[in-house]
Specification:
It contains eight helices and nine strands. By secondary structure, it is α/β, with parallel strands linked by helices. The structure holds adenosine-5'-diphosphate and guanosine-5'-monophosphate. The site of adenosine-5'-diphosphate has 14 residues, from helix 1 and helix 5.
């Protein structure tokens, strides 16, 4: 049975564990495509250009906006982030599910353009735990951490508009829930009925 690829947005406060959970989700999966965003933020220790992000200058980012190369883009805590459209569309054509790790403003843009996108919000088990994870990661200054926590409050407010709400208490459970969501979304009648009717 062949199937079409679907687009899944994963949003959630900085430090909630999106990258950790998505890395675990991708293990051993060749049916998933991670959309590597472009950003004007500098790389953190251990981040690899082209794998975690395409780290580009503000001028290069502006040039991509002008060339209409982004599916969406947004400013987040002083930096720009955007999803290059081309790779997303190529992956969907190849039948892969595309995962976008993007914040809420970008999620709105993608959903407006493509309403068949599935939106998943990842939340922390508690506010204290979010602060603990952000601090423990050790990649941001205390000032940046406070800005990200402030932003997290706004993000949590918009979570009720998402299709799914996953709480990242343990990584294993969060990954299991993501797997279940991806699986269930391919059981929709709109996708399944044409497969058996050959339309
Ligand atoms: P995000 O991508 O959402 O900004 P990260 O994946 O970088 O978050 O995770 C932030 C920190 O929290 C990291 O140090 C990571 O190891 C830790 N972390 C992620 N998920 C969990 C979890 N379920 N329990 C405990 N620590 C976690
Ligand atoms: P970080 O700097 O912690 O890697 O990411 C900060 C925020 O930007 C996270 O909420 C992440 O989901 C979001 N983000 C990453 N890439 C993109 C993107 O291409 N577009 C948008 N809108 N947000 C992004």
């Amino acid at each position: 049975m062949s199937r079409r690829g679907k687009t899944f947005i994963v949003s959630g406060p900085s430090g909630v564990g999106k990258s950790t959970v998505l890395n675990a989700l991708f293990e051993g999966r060749d049916d998933l495509f991670f959309s590597v965003s472009a950003t004007t933020r500098g790389p953190r220790n251990g981040e690899i250009d082209g794998k975690d992000y395409h780290f580009i200058t503000a001028d290069a980012f502006r040039a991509m906006i002008e060339a209409d190369a982004f599916l969406e883009y947004a400013e987040y805590v002083g930096n720009f982030y955007g999803t290059p459209m081309r790779y997303v569309d190529e992956a969907l054509e190849d039948g892969l599910d595309v995962i976008l790790d993007i914040e809420i403003q970008g999620a709105v843009q993608v959903y407006q353009k493509r309403p068949d996108t599935v939106r998943i919000f990842i939340a922390p088990p508690s506010w204290e735990e979010l602060e603990r994870r952000l601090t423990a990661r050790g990649t941001d200054t205390p000032e940046k951490i406070q800005k990200r926590l402030l932003r997290a409050k706004v993000e949590l407010d918009s979570a009720s508009g998402y299709d799914y709400f996953v709480i990242n208490d343990t990584v294993e459970e969060a990954v299991e829930e993501l797997r279940a969501i991806l699986r269930a979304e391919h059981c929709r009648p709109a996708e399944r009925i044409p497969l058996i009717l050959g339309r």
